[in-house]
Please model this.
Amino acid sequence: MKIEKKVLDMSLAGIFTAIIIAMSVVPFLGYIPLGFMNATIIHVPVIIGAIILGPKYGAYLGLVFGVTSLVKATIAPGVTSFVFSPFVTIGGYSGNMWSAVIAIVPRVCIGIVAYFVYKLIMKAAHGIKGSQTVALWVAGIAGAMTNTLLVMNGIYIFFGQSYAAASNKAVEHIYDVILGIILGFGIPEAIVAGILTTAITKVLFKIMKDNG
Model:
């Protein structure tokens, strides 16, 4: 039974990996171009995979997301892609090792945070009707906001001046821009992630339960 579960988990991880890669390469499926950056929903399969398979697989799926982000920034760069790839120079502004950190580390954290938020709420609300729905919704939001907050604050800390110049913003107001992105795009992304995580994960849980 333990071997069968391990094989099932590895198979599901493979499926989630394929979904993440497909979303990263198919135009408008995982990334929505905004000119100076991209909005994304690729964190959703990372969150769902983490909740179903556990934090280790969640971290792995986040790593896949992060690597695809770095690769995309490298081969199809936008005006601020240097913050996600150490191999990109745009308008005299170059990425460095912190670019790889920003592209990968926040994404690894997505699944870990989402998993433990889900488990914490389920434990705290044990037996309460509707607790799973709430736990999934909050976990989806938490995972998405982990990505947004870590990425955008990482950009501010490590690339504040160059990011401001590349996006034609005044340096002294760059955190206002960062905050605007967090509020204007990060929160809607998180709400969508909460809805999708709840709907899809409940269906997957039911399928897994029905199949033993």
